[in-house]
Amino acid sequence: xxxxxxxxxxxxxxxxxxxxxxxxxxxxxxxxxxxxxxxxxxxxxxxxxxxxxxxxxxxxxxxxxxxxxxxxxxxxxxxxxxxxxxxxxxxxxxxxxxxxxxxxxxxxxxxxxxxxxxxxxxxxxxxxxxxxxxxxxxxxxxxxxxxxxxxxxxxxxxxxxxxxxxxxxxxxxxxxxxxxxxxxxxxxxxxxxxxxxxxxxxxxxxxxxxxxxxxxxxxxxxxxxxxxxxxxxxxxxxxxxxx
Length: 243
Known about the structure:
Elements: E1 14-20, E2 31-36, E3 42-44, H1 50-53, H2 74-94, E4 100-104, H3 110-116, E5 121-126, H4 129-139, E6 143-145, H5 148-151, E7 158-164, H6 173-183, E8 184-193, H7 200-205, E9 219-220, H8 223-232
Helix pairs in contact: 2-3
């Protein structure tokens, strides 16, 4: 772990938000989330390095779900199918005509496969070797194993880029958003799904709120903080919805 400063404004004057263990997977460690006194970004400090983070994403991590038909539980199959349909509909509500789509943090490729079935040309980026290998072998998807910044994708290439519950996991959100701005076509669509630390549940459950997800969630974004991130990296905020 290492001490870090605020990724958004660069200051190093944080106040403690909460601290505690890995409540989701019960992996070892005690982790602190702090808030920047200058801009309000909530971030983990000290933070795990990229190499250390791998231990907190085991192969049975819930987002690494396998093909829906391989699930033994009918309720789990229905849940996965419903979630995929909602995501596809949400994207296509804003971009109804098929084009090129990149899913960052695509896990095992379920969403990309669903969008390809809707005539989109799809590609993905996924740090997990096992999850990305599964996506390639099971669905024959074009997946880069690693981070978005390492992928070296062509400029102005994609009509849409999605990050479903992903931006809070990346080490450098500003660099990630800047790279997305480079690879999106002019007028392209960016879709972000994020936990909201200003929500009622966060206040109700305190440090036990699922959205904190220490230590996997390295940054958490209130709406004003997210708007500043987007503005600083060349994006406009078109719509915010509860999802």
